[in-house]
Write a structure and sequence with these properties.
By secondary structure, this protein is an alpha/beta fold. The protein contains 17 helices and 16 strands. It has a seven-stranded mixed β-sheet, sandwiched between helices. Bound molecules: S-adenosylmethionine (SAM).
């Protein structure tokens, strides 16, 4: 190789390296620009999206100074009146803010009632400490979606202007939580929209942080019944002129917790208005009461416990007191029914198969039978069995009064073998179980993933199984 060729190849190599360096530089600069733009775009999206906790943390700093926030209105008197009637011992306010309602209620009632307030905004709670002063009740930082209290901890739960600020994808879970911790009553007071109809999801977006919900639907989905509902019409001039023009003014609602199981809430929409219903194992008649009062149904029941039956008689046309396994008792019933309801009852019987066969006679030609049964293959029971445990409990899947146990497959078999064709199947899930808790730290509480998992593995996550069937 001559020195000339060596020189050419060095020059060629150098020019190629230079070109490569230029191309690389160009690519790196482009990538950096794109990344920064993308990041900025993302930032803008995040900022413009309603993040409830961040929003209330910020607004909480000055909320107490906002005009009208410290005011007391018609609905406050109404609330006080309800509290005097219900005489609750333990009251929880969800989303208590700086403590306006707590201070009002506490100063007007005797010392026998214990109050507690929760809010997820620390700045609000900080204001509440000062505003409530000496009388500061226990206050806790908690999200309405995951309340740190056991089931039925409070006789009464108060919610004032909070759910209207909870986004649509979370509002059902929030109602569920309120219902879970309430022993008997909830008072809810929310601003609503007067101009528009809710969309098919039951919501109208009023602005970026305010939503008007179809509360009747929301409550029914959660097994809550409206005991009293008032639209505030007779407010002072301010509310009527300034707000009512655009929004309905706050609507106080007294809710009564009627259904012990969430699965019952799923059964409500399955019964058509005006149906003739036979409620087998009707207990105190909470389901029948709903159907009679809210859906103009004619309801009869069968119940072995005479005390429970006497309560149910207030709402039912007939209640037969006795065991549904008693053939003579069933033969004494001759009415045809549009719906025969066996909600959480067949698992208490020795021969549910025979009872199902006998009930066929009572179902009208177009009628349906609705059956709910606990799923013994739920992951909590499997996990306990893996550890060698099968301990009966006071209620739930291993209720000590259960005689029979079913999986989805054996429940289907039971119904079909009794001469029915299954039209639909769904299942309820209890609140967030231990297995699901880690998912709560994901964005939006891992809602979508949880829904996917629950839907994908009903035999593991289904708690109460609900079938609608007709005679074959
Ligand atoms: C309009 S303020 C009403 C405050 C108070 N209830 C009143 O009537 O004066 C709404 C309150 O709900 C709280 N809040 C909103 N979403 C919440 C959630 N998911 N969990 C707990 N508090 C929430 C906010 O922090 C705020 O204090």
């Amino acid at each position: 190789m001559t020195s000339h060729t060596r020189f050419i190849s060095m020059g060629w190599l150098f020019s190629r390296l230079l070109l490569l360096a230029l191309v690389l530089r160009f690519l790196v600069v482009r990538m950096a620009v794109n990344l920064t733009h993308g990041f900025r775009r993302k930032m803008v999206n995040i900022e413009s999206k309603y993040n409830p906790q961040r929003y209330w943390e910020q607004r909480g700093q000055t909320f107490i100074q906002e005009e009208y926030q410290r005011g007391l209105y018609w609905q406050h008197d109404w609330m006080l009146d309800k509290l005097r009637t219900c005489q609750p011992e333990h009251v929880l306010e969800i989303g208590c803010g700086f403590g306006r309602n707590l201070r009002f209620l506490q100063s007007h009632l005797d010392g026998k009632t214990h109050y507690c307030g929760v809010d997820f905004s620390l700045s609000m709670l900080f204001q509440a400490q000062t505003y409530l002063g000496e009388s500061a009740q226990p206050l806790a930082a908690a999200d309405a979606l995951h309340l740190p209290f056991a089931d039925g901890s409070f006789d009464l739960v108060v919610i004032h202007g909070v759910f209207m600020h909870i986004p649509p994808e979370q509002v059902l879970a929030a109602t569920r939580e309120a219902r879970r911790v309430a022993r008997k009553h909830i008072i809810q007071c929310e601003q609503n929209y007067s101009g528009l109809q809710p969309n098919s999801q039951g919501v109208v977006k009023i602005n970026d942080v305010t939503f008007a919900y179809d509360y009747a639907r929301l409550f029914a989905q959660n097994g809550l019944i409206v005991a009293e509902h008032r639209s505030v019409k007779d407010l002072d001039a301010f509310l009527l002129t300034k707000r009512a023009a655009k929004y309905d003014v706050p609507e106080p609602i007294l809710l009564e917790k009627l259904f012990p199981e969430f699965s019952h809430a799923l059964i409500l929409p399955l019964v058509v208005v005006g149906s003739r219903v036979l409620d087998v194992g009707c207990a105190t008649g909470y389901l029948g009461r709903y159907f009679a009062e809210q859906k103009a149904c004619i309801v009869d029941g069968v119940e072995p416990d005479p005390e429970a039956a006497s309560v149910a008689k207030q709402f039912y046309r007939n209640v037969w007191v006795g065991n549904v396994e008693n053939q003579e008792l069933l033969e004494g019933i001759s009415n045809p029914y549009d719906v025969v309801l066996c909600a959480a009852v067949l698992e208490h019987l020795a021969r549910p198969d025979l009872v199902l066969k006998r009930l066929r006679r009572l179902i009208s030609p177009d009628g349906r039978i609705i059956i709910s049964l606990p799923n013994i293959a739920h992951w909590t029971v499997r996990w306990a069995l893996l550890r060698g445990r099968f301990d009966y409990e006071e209620y739930g899947l291993l209720d000590r009064t259960h005689l029979r146990f079913f999986t989805i497959r054996t429940a289907r078999q039971l119904i079909e073998d009794a001469g029915y064709h299954i039209d639909s199947f769904q299942f309820s899930t209890p609140g967030v179980t231990e297995l699901e808790k880690p998912l709560l730290s994901l964005p939006r509480g891992g809602y979508r993933l949880r829904r996917f998992l629950l839907g994908r593995f009903p035999e593991l996550f289904g708690y109460e199984l609900i079938f609608v069937a007709r005679k074959q």
